[in-house]
Amino acid sequence: MLKEKPMSKMFNDWPEEPLEPSWITIGNFDGVHLGHQELITQLIARARKDNALSVALTFWPHPRVYFTQSVEGFYLNDRSEKKELLAQTGLDVIVCLPFNQQLANLDAMQFMTRLNEVIPMKGLLVGENFALGKGRQGTGDVLQSVCMQIGVPCLHIPPVMLDGERVSSHRIRQTLDAGEVEQTARLLGRPYVLSGTVSPGKKRGSKLGFPTANLYFDLQRKLPRYGVYATLVEMEGRIYQSVTSVGIRPTFDDGRMPSVEVLLLDFDENIYGKMIHVKFVHFLRDEIKFDNVQDLIDQIELDKTDARRILDYGI
After folding, report:
1. pLDDT in tens, 234-247
2. Cα–Cα dist 92/6, whole Å
3. Fewer Cβ atoms within 10 Å of its own Cβ: the N or the C terminal residue of the chain?
């Protein structure tokens, strides 16, 4: 019988006791996209070759969120999703440091010295444009010098390219802003997902004959472009075809907080309070402000037909 690989060990701050010698990578890993995955694959290979641990060091909140105090519409993953995605790569250890002013004040030498005390390094493997330390002054040459003084190798890997452009979290956000969720999925290596519990809404969909599930989602999460999408919903281990509307419901609300409403196809059960995972497959159309309710009903029927065709046949 094959042995199951042990689960990644998780730390939500510096480990209290020093770990075994490790190959380490450092980053925000927002999205855990193809570039992150390649970096981690190479890290794990080097760790195994040296009989060392593979360790990813990350931060929460994201430094950009910490410094700007911006909370809405940024993260590609919430904290728990990021940890789960990192764990799925096969890493031995994941350390998520609280990003605060004390950490932000450390320069590259101070940070790397502290890191090496807690996680003795066999080596550091990072992306080509990586920088750390106060004011991000620990760029390539500086980081190389710091690692040399500590006595560990510092290796940079080139970026992963797709269609001639670098895979990055910023690029993924751009595809979501454009509603190009197929391209988002290519960059991530999986569909973009919004997760949350189903909360009671105003039941307008039920009154129209289309009961929808209102997703209670983290407002820090990046939403795709406002519009209507063909989606797949994972709930309690099963997959359901669905149509998902992202936006401000202009026919009714005119500019209130954004909402995510999911219409599960061929499904009629009460799912309030249940956790669902909405996978975005294809952009169907922009939000429309309808002149009357019947026009809205007719359009929803068209959306359902279009979504079924795309989800069944990909066209």
Report:
1. 999 999 999 999 99
2. 8
3. N
Length of the chain: 315
Side-chain-side CA neighbours of 267 within 13 Å: the count stands at 20
Pairwise CA distance, residues 26 & 59, whole Å: 9
* Tokens coding 117: 């005390």
More confident residue, 206 or 6: 6
| pLDDT score of 16 more than 50 | yes
Answer whether the bond into residue 61 is a cis peptide, omega within 30°.
yes
Strand runs labelled E in 188-315: 192-199, 213-216, 227-235, 238-247, 259-264, 275-285
* 3-class SS of residue 307: helix
Residue 51 DSSP symbol:
T
Per the structure block, which two tokens stand in for 13? 């701050």
DSSP codes joined into one string, 189-220: TS-EEEEEEEE----HHHHHT---EEEE--TT
Question: Residue 232, Cβ neighbours under 10 Å: how many?
Answer: 18
Please state the pTM of the whole predicted model.
0.92
Q: In whole angstroms, what separates CA 135 from the centre of its chain?
A: 25
Q: Convert the pLDDT of each residue in 33-76 to its tens digit.
A: 999 999 999 999 999 999 999 999 999 999 989 998 876 799 99
- With b for 16 or more beta-carbon neighbours within 10 A and e for fewer, the 53-90 pattern comes to bbbbbbbbbbeebbeeeeeeebbbbbeebbbebbbebe
Q: Residue 130, SS3?
A: coil
Question: Six-digit token pair at 154?
Answer: 């510092």
Which DSSP helix (H) or strand (E) runs through 112?
helix 108-118
Among candidate residues 315, 261, 313, 314, the one with its CA nearest the CA of residue 287: 261
- Give residue 207's pLDDT: 52
Classified as helix, coil or strand, 166 is strand
